[in-house]
Amino acid sequence: MTDDTGTAGNEQGSEADRELSWRAKSVGLAAVDMDDAELLHGWRSDPVIAHEIGIWPRSLTAMRERIERDSDDDDRDDFLVLLPDGTPVGHIALSGQNIVNGTAQIELMLAAQHRGHGHGTNALDALVDLAFGELPMHRLTAEAHTGNAPALAVLAKSGFVHEGISRAACLHRGRRHDRAVFSLLRPEWEELNRSRAWDTWDA
User: Fold this and answer.
1) Element (H, E) at 189
2) CA torsion angle 155 157 158 159 (round to 10)
3) Which of 22, 64, 91, 122: disulfide with 37, CB 3.0–4.6 Å?
4) pTM for this one?
């Protein structure tokens, strides 16, 4: 998981009329489609992003193939994070969904120039509300490098509990890095003192 890191990539500034799958007070979530491949590829090709989410940048063709593959995966939902004017500011996903056990993982990536404005927190809260408010999830997890202070702060602000450390869980630039493991349970979400995504729809 990253928060507020990465490069702008090729932003699509004219997304205002894009159909939203879910929305909250300051961001909307639109399902990722093939036309988003170049934008996502640009973000993921940034070396900081690659380090924070523990991936090796792949080709644009590989990104298109991944989007096509993920679109057929019933256990995964990928969204672009959009501002009210339609500007794309990041990507968020609910992956590894296990309806029987009620578990899933959250992934988040934001573009550089949109960091520090609360978009990461709002996007995370929106997806959490989707997972617990519309889906039968009971436990959500997320991971971030222990040195990624902004991501750790966003997870804590959204109510996630720090469970522990996955030691030497990622190899990057010849060094092993630890990853912090966070989780949020349905009862903890129910006790959060904040508005839910749907509370803002008629505001």
Assistant:
1) helix 186-190
2) 90
3) 64
4) 0.85
**The 3-state secondary structure of 49-109, one letter per residue:** HHHHHCCCCCCHHHHHHHHHHHHCCCCCEEEEEECCCCCEEEEEEEEEEECCCCEEEEEEE
- Characterize the bridge pairing of strands 175-185 and 161-172: antiparallel
Is residue 10 helix, strand or coil? Answer: coil
Residue 101 buriedness (CB in 10 A; 0-12 / 13-18 / 19+) = exposed
Q: Closest Cα partner for 127 from 48, 184, 69?
A: 184
CB 30 within 8 A of CB 36: no
Tokens linked to 47: 């070396």
Beta-strand pair 88-98/77-82: antiparallel
For residues 163 and 182, the answer to whether their CB atoms sit within 8 Å is yes
Residue 102 tokens read as 């009620």
Cβ(111)–Cβ(7) under 8 Å? Answer: yes
pLDDT in tens, the chain (203 residues): 765 433 333 444 434 578 899 988 789 999 999 999 998 888 887 777 666 666 677 788 988 988 988 887 889 999 999 999 999 999 999 999 999 999 999 999 888 777 788 899 999 999 999 999 999 999 999 999 888 888 999 999 999 999 999 999 887 777 888 999 999 999 999 999 999 999 977 65
- Residue 141, helix vs strand vs coil: strand
